[in-house]
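User: quick one, fold this
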Amino acid sequence: MATLIDAAEFTSNEVYQIQATDPVQGAASGASFSGTGISNQPHQQLANRTAFLKQRQDVNISNIGVLQAFQALFTGLMAPNGYLKIPVADTNKGLIQYVIQWGLVNWGTRQGEGLYGPYSFPIAFPNACELFMPVTLTPESVGHPAAGDDVAMVSASYFPTASQFWVWNNNPGPDSTDASQGFYWFAIGF
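Assistant:
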């Protein structure tokens, strides 16, 4: 039994309607519609459309798989100490995940000058921590409005691929009342 060979093509509003006056004509050399025959022409057109739609569906399924894999790269934890991983096609590094992390270290009491830590990131940076920003919990105006230099964090030391960081607490005031009681922090890496 011979079969119609489909071609993936779509032509709208062009499925041949067999007329009452059309003779029954199957596929043969010299038959109408390039040898398909009048009786087979609508079937050929529908087979071509089906092949076209199947081809498009296969592309869509493949693209959906790519999108699902891309979506799986977005992960995070919305919490006081949390993180967000964002996939990025970086101009220099290719496909990487930016990692944004944040948190709070609350000492509960004001601490004097010194190096404090280690404190843990919610997750380790796989490659490097590019930016670390601590922000004091103690506003300059609390208790000592004239103490304009009581910024608690003047520098931070951290290990780029490690899961911990240290913070230097600057206590420039005359006593511990204007020292920091903790800090928020924000870090970006990949």
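User: anything notable?
Assistant: The longest strand covers residues 94-106.
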